[in-house]
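Fill in residues.
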């Protein structure tokens, strides 16, 4: 539900499943061909913005599923009230999410109080921004990870969390996927925030997160089977984040 007229734009990402056929069944959806050249998230986002026509741009990942009818109106409301320059929504864990994934989603989103304490937080997975801001300040087309954070951090802007703009969006990452994800985020954090490699600090972070995991699982006994894996996954996250930060400076 949204009082404003809107268009839906979908860009081909080379899907080999039934996605193209499903999209083709909706004639009102504007379909963009896959752009030529190497994939970079910022380049793809700028390409889609250039083909849009509205004053407000709403981003929603292909695997982020709105769970209430007011998702869109809640997401754009702070922009319409001129109370924000960028808005991000509430990402709920999927029904099949591991308990520790549920805990991470709750900490990052939930009522928003935890993320408000962090150095910086923004997620483009379900978000809204004015088109004029994206034209004047396009996404960095060279960065490979955290292009949304780089865009939002580049200059002072008002970022607002819309907790009632809810989507289901979570990932049960394998260990290999965790390594790749946190390595990429480490490189991005070095580039965006100037982080320096500090392995002891990363390991302390892993220990503290494991303790939080334990408290959460004790409060949710159905997930206690995940407890032995918690320190392994947290160590991998922080070690590969450190490795990404380190390698960023090695490659400079």
């Amino acid at each position: 539900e949204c009082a404003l007229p809107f268009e839906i734009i979908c860009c081909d990402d080379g899907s080999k499943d039934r996605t193209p056929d499903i999209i083709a069944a909706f004639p009102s959806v504007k379909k963009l061909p896959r752009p030529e050249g190497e994939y970079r998230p910022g380049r793809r986002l700028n390409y889609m913005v250039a083909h849009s026509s509205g004053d407000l741009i709403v981003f929603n990942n292909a695997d982020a599923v709105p769970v209430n009818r007011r998702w869109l109106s809640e997401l754009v409301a702070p922009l319409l009230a001129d109370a924000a320059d960028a808005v991000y929504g509430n990402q709920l864990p999927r029904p099949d999410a591991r308990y520790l994934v549920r805990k991470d989603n709750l900490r990052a989103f939930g009522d928003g109080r935890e993320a408000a304490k962090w150095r910086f937080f923004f997620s483009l997975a379900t978000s809204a921004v004015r088109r004029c801001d994206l034209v004047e300040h396009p996404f960095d087309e060279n960065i490979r990870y955290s292009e949304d954070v780089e865009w939002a951090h580049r200059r002072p802007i008002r970022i607002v969390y819309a907790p009632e703009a809810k989507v289901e969006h979570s990932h049960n990452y394998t260990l290999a996927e965790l390594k790749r994800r946190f390595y990429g985020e480490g490189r991005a954090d070095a580039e965006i925030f100037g982080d320096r490699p500090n392995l002891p600090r990363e390991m302390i972070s892993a220990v503290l997160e494991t303790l939080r995991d334990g408290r959460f699982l004790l409060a949710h006994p159905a997930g206690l089977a995940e407890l032995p894996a918690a320190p392994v996954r947290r160590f991998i996250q922080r070690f590969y984040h450190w490795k990404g930060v380190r390698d960023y400076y090695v490659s400079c």
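Strands lie at 9-11, 30-32, 56-60, 65-66, 86-92, 126-130, 159-168.
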